[in-house]
UniProtKB/TrEMBL annotation:
Function: Catalyzes the condensation of iminoaspartate with dihydroxyacetone phosphate to form quinolinate.
Highest taxon, organism lineage: Bacteria
Organism: Streptomyces evansiae
Reactions performed catalytically: iminosuccinate + dihydroxyacetone phosphate = quinolinate + phosphate + 2 H2O + H(+)
Keywords noted in UniProt: 4Fe-4S, Cytoplasm, Iron, Iron-sulfur, Metal-binding, Pyridine nucleotide biosynthesis, Transferase
Pathways per UniProt: Cofactor biosynthesis; NAD(+) biosynthesis; quinolinate from iminoaspartate: step 1/1
Name of the featured protein: Quinolinate synthase
Length: 352
């Protein structure tokens, strides 16, 4: 659907007025109407680095979700202000691990006598509180593009990893990339006493996976992979590692959003692809590659509803407010949380 020309003109005018003062970041899952105003686009890893590389921008407008804006605030200087055009753009996965629940989990691990062997590895898709917990306990952050390197680093520090909050990325990386077995993994359920695990299970496990998942990627099923293979002979199935293990196992290729984009850029004309990731990105890729057949892996799966909250009206309101000198929707992490979260993020940025 084309964007409202009046809103496009207003966004353009406000952005022009702000000039170098503003830097707009757009995650790949954002709407086209928003992406057209992004100074850079990327996956969560690239955007974290891009935010840190813009010290001259007074305002960082983050078109993505809350945890990404928090990470940008942590990685930018105190002078810079990070803005999320709609404060309701959260992430259901990040919400699956609260600071209290994670502190309780650490008590369970301590009581089982395993905490000393555990290195926390937290997915970027987590709140600043969880990142701070990770930093306090000597762990690292990871994204879907460096999860393997993060786990290699973590297993060089300790015998066990507490991976949170996405059980699927944790399991897929451990089994696909690290040669572990499914039996090496246990799932910690924060809604059950002791995480629903016995002391023996905690002692035997190498990967303790937090029971969280992405409400978009978690919905792709093995049936959809089988169905698309039947419907489109010769199709290559390419999915994001936030998908369930059975989906990832049945796919031809697995990778982060940046990986998916590069794989399709490199694919020969006439090739056929079924993509298991967010719909805005898949539609954009299909449009960008008219010489290839690119379909969405499962037609019953939808957009990420919170990513989609950032729309052109919110962006216009944000840019016009900033152009008038009014700072709206600032995301600010408190100093203590920032200190420890930054330690964990910097460890990630320093991974080989
Ligand atoms: P990446 O941007 O790291 O591929 O993660 C996907 C995602 O779900 C972001 O919310
Ligand atoms: Fe969160 Fe999934 Fe949406 Fe990413 S796609 S913001 S992980 S709910």
């Amino acid at each position: 659907e084309p964007s409202d020309p009046d809103l496009v003109a207003r966004a353009r005018a406000a952005k022009e007025k702000l000039g170098e003062k503003v830097f707009v970041l757009g995650h790949h899952y954002q709407r086209d109407e928003v992406i057209q105003f992004a100074d850079v686009t990327g996956d969560s890893f690239k955007l974290a680095r891009d935010a840190a590389a813009r010290p001259e921008a007074e305002y960082i407008v983050f078109c993505g979700v809350h945890f990404m804006a928090e990470s940008a605030d942590i990685l930018t200087s105190a002078r810079q202000r990070v803005i999320l055009p709609d404060l309701a753009a959260g992430c259901s996965m990040a919400d699956m691990a609260s600071a209290e629940q994670v502190a309780e989990c650490w008590d369970v691990l301590t009581e089982a006598g395993v905490a000393e062997q555990v290195v926390p590895v937290s997915y970027m898709n987590s709140s600043a509180d969880i990142k701070a917990f990770t930093g306090r306990h000597g762990g690292t952050i990871c994204t879907s593009s460096n999860a393997k390197r993060a786990l290699e680093w973590a297993f060089a520090q300790g015998e066990k990893v507490l991976f949170l909050p996405d059980q699927h990325l944790g399991r897929n990386t451990a089994v696909r990339d690290m040669g572990m077995s499914l039996d090496d993994c246990v799932v910690y359920n924060p809604h059950k006493p002791n995480g629903g695990l016995t002391t023996e299970q905690l002692r035997a496990a190498k990967m303790i996976l937090w029971r969280g998942h992405c409400s978009v990627h978690g919905r792709f099923s093995l049936d959809s992979v089988n169905e698309v293979r039947e419907r489109i002979p010769g199709v290559r199935v390419l999915v994001h590692p936030e998908c369930k293990h059975e989906v990832v196992s049945a796919a031809d290729e697995v990778g982060s959003t940046e990986y998916i984009i590069k794989a399709l850029d490199a694919a020969p004309a006439g090739s056929k692809w079924a993509i298991g990731t967010e719909l805005n990105l898949v539609r954009r890729l299909a449009k960008a590659h008219p010489d290839k057949e690119i379909v969405f892996l499962d037609r019953t799966v939808c957009f990420c509803s919170t990513m989609n909250r950032i729309d052109l009206p919110h962006l216009v309101w944000t840019l016009e407010s900033l152009a008038e000198g009014k700072v709206v929707n600032r995301i600010e992490v408190d100093a203590e949380t920032e200190f420890f979260a930054k330690a964990a993020l910097e460890r990630m940025l320093a991974l080989p």
